[in-house]
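QA checklist item 7 of 12: single-chain prediction sanity check.
[x] sequence parsed
[x] length recorded as 125
[x] structure emitted
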Amino acid sequence: MKPIENLSNVEKASLLFGLFPKEMPELIKFIHGMSLAMLEDEERQRQAWDNGLMTYDFWLSLVRDGKVKVERYGKKLCLNGRLFSEQLFDGYIAVFTTHCMEVYITARQHENARFVLAVKMLFNL
């Protein structure tokens, strides 16, 4: 196995899926919910946007891409680690899905402390 600092986002997501398959349905549901919420509140978020690394339109394209992939693959994402990791963590979409995971583990008291620690360790959150 590679050292953690040499793992790609896809490999990290695959490892997370393999370690915590029972956590995936709720995480995927949360990612979908965040994408819907962001798309519904587009104008307010556009006005408040202050990220110098990317434009709001680029961010919005990642949000839409995440929404489309969750809707296209649905429950298959919960059953197949390769599909989960390749669809939701390959390329720029990982910026959105990693953000969703950060909110998912910090916005509420997650009941699985090991899952929270794994997410933080793998994705440097």
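[x] summary fact logged: The chain has a mean pLDDT of 93.
[ ] second reviewer sign-off
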